[in-house]
Amino acid sequence: MAKSLFLLLSFLIQSTIFQPNLAQEYKTEKSTQIRVYWHDLFTGPNPTSIRVAESPQTKSSSVFFGAVVVIDDPLTVGPELSTDLIGRAQGMYTFADSKELGALMTMNFVFTKGEYNGSTISIFGRNHILSAVREMSIVGGTGVFRMARGYAHASTNATANSVEYNLFVNHY
Ligand SMILES: *[C@@H]1O[C@H](CO)[C@@H](O)[C@H](O)[C@H]1NC(C)=O
Ligand SMILES: *[C@@H]1O[C@H](CO)[C@@H](O)[C@H](O)[C@H]1NC(C)=O
Asked: What is the pTM of this model?
């Protein structure tokens, strides 16, 4: 009697503490590549990119040093804005380089369509805007992209007036 009670108790304790299903979920890391196009619309009647702050010195800076811009930019599946919307880039960028055109990008890619709908990827990195390819860090994510880490490559498409973002992301 005492022995079976002991067995029952130890079974109950094990099943509550170890939660085998949750542990399983974090065993296999996946790699995903995503290409989206980022549109920074700072002109027109409905801008998605607005400058919210700057220092008095910013006006005399040829590289906008000190300006802070908040964005809710469309992300599309093709280079042109007219292609399908797949999400939005929400966050801000700060002109944080006093000598060159360079921004600190702090933004979430918020997916609103397809298999990634509702999931986000967090990007944090230096954007040396005039370089052909800029690499930034992927520092986290939610939903499908829980525990995300990786990097993004950004390149400007002057014809389409958009920026191609190739995301290389590992997640669970
Ligand atoms: C995306 O998810 C939201 C919230 O769950 C839902 O309301 C919406 O219909 C979904 N959109 C698409 C295109 O699947
Ligand atoms: C830039 O965008 C145009 C569409 O406006 C497209 O034809 C061209 O292939 C794109 N360039 C690159 C390098 O993707």
From this structure: 0.86
